[in-house]
Amino acid sequence: MFKLMLSLSIVGMSLFASPVQSFDAMEETSYIETTNESAEKETKNKTPDIKSLKETIHPDLSQDEIIERFGKPDEVLTDAMYDLPLWRYDFKLDKEYSNKLGYDSVDFDALKSNKLQYIVMVSFDQEEEKIRNVSIYYLDDKNQIHNYRQFADGYVKDTVIE
Predict the structure, then answer these.
(1) What is the pTM of this model?
(2) Which positions make up the signal peptide (predicted)?
(3) How many domains does the chain have?
(4) Are 124 and 144 contained in the same domain?
(5) Which of 72, 85, 89, 92 is the most exposed place for a label (fewest CB within 10 A)?
């Protein structure tokens, strides 16, 4: 009889403990999901590293896909060399920065003084249906300015400018 009561006590205690453990585990899972959602939102608001940026923007994209990924361009300009449409995106480190030049130039001072992290220029063909090339200007860890270019034919070039 004593063994039966002891067995029932142990079974009763384990049944009682199980819902508490499940509730604790559920709370922990809920907390983890909330944390992951916050981290996801933070990641979306962060500027991509240069490798990710190079993989994200390329000449195979449509105008709608570019806008979906990066929003509307900071400026819509005309390419001085070919007189073609050009979109400019400024990835700002200084929220107050604005391009005062008004044409398709690169603000090297803003890159070197950490006002800009990247300048992305997307050049289109005359009909604005296809991308001719994508240029990304950025400062590397040695304080050198690069011009990374992807052309519609697949050619890729990364040049140190200064």
Answers:
(1) 0.69
(2) 1-22
(3) 2
(4) yes
(5) 72
